[in-house]
Amino acid sequence: MAVTIKSEREIALMRESCKLLADVFHRMEEAVEPGMSTMDINIIGDRLIREHGCIPNFLHYNGYPASICVSVNDEVVHGIPHKKHILQEGDIVSLDAGLIYKGYHSDMARTFGVGEISEEARLLIERTKQSFFDGIKMAVAGNHLHDISNAIDASISRYGYGIVTDLVGHGIGTKLHEDPQIPNFAQKRKGILLRPGMTLAVEPMINMGRSDVEWLDDDWTVVTEDGSLSAHYENTILITDGEPEILTMP
Ligand code: MF3
Ligand code: CO
Fold first, then answer.
1. Nearest protein CA to atom 8 of ligand 1, as residue
2. Could you tell which of 96, 99, 181, 237 is best to mutate to test the pocket of ligand 1, judged by most ligand atoms within 8 Å of the CB?
3. Quick one: which H or E segment has residue 235?
4. Does 1 reside within a domain?
5. Which residues, 6 or more positions from 63, have their beta carbon under 8 angstroms from its beta carbon?
6. Is residue 3 a part of any domain in this protein?
7. Is there a domain that residue 248 lies in?
8. Which of 90, 124, 165, 235 is the most buried (most CB within 10 A)?
9. Full domain range(s) for residue 215
């Protein structure tokens, strides 16, 4: 599949889709507190998406059974919300959500602390976020896709964390997952040339320990193999002639 270049009309729709998602996210974040279940977060997120007149794009995607991915501690991504999974003080929780507005998809993720968290957990979250920003410094028309990957890798490698390699970022538009795939680790090849009008979901997933992950028996939840904590930070961005526009941070 070819990488799509969005028209001005499509870019306007992507902007609106992402803006609505950012609002949903802001309000989900405010709701996170010890004692609530991961299903409570899903219910809140699903309701907010629908209140905006949008559709949760994760629900039923390849059979995924919820609207929000809620991944706690050693869960990397795609945690399935459950009413018996209660958030505890000191947990870290990764929320990943997306929606469809007038046919256009948005996608973003953040990791939050539940109440007070350890200093090492705080640093993992902060450095994961920083690697996104270091990566997208390279997300400029005329650069190559893997300049982003290499910059994320360089940002993280000094800490001895494990960069998840089994999952990658992606193009996004009229589908949740479009070409190209966007690795978060150093690449030998340059990758495609970045052009204005490309919309990309850049999403480093970083483990405190080793990079290896495994899938639970529910066929969705990805966990770290060594049981270490994992953090996720994702935005949908637009490639322009200048700096990238972070559409999910309006
Ligand atoms: N946000 C995820 C991604 O970036 C998508 C979740 S897959 C789903 O690819 F099935 F949970 F929707
Ligand atoms: Co994504």
1. 58
2. 96
3. strand 235-238
4. no
5. none
6. no
7. no
8. 235
9. 8-241
Q: Render 104-138 in DSSP notation, one character per residue.
A: EEEEEEEEEESSS--HHHHHHHHHHHHHHHHHHTT
Kindly indicate the confidence band of residue 61, based on its pLDDT and cuts at 50, 70 and 90: very high
Six-digit token pair at 58? 């994760």
Quote the ligand 2 centre to 176 CA distance (angstroms). 8
Chain segment 132-190, per-residue pLDDT in tens: 999 999 999 999 999 999 999 999 999 999 999 999 999 999 999 999 999 999 999 99
Report the number of distinct structural domains present in the chain: 1
Q: Phi and psi dihedrals of 246, rounded to 5?
A: -90, 100
Evaluate whether residue 202 is within a structural domain: yes
Check residue 241 and give its pLDDT. 92
Instruction: Write a three-state SS string for 20-36.
Output: HHHHHHHHHHHHCCCCC
CATH number of the domain residue 16 falls in:
3.90.230.10
Per-residue model confidence as pLDDT tens digits over 219-235: 999 999 999 999 999 99
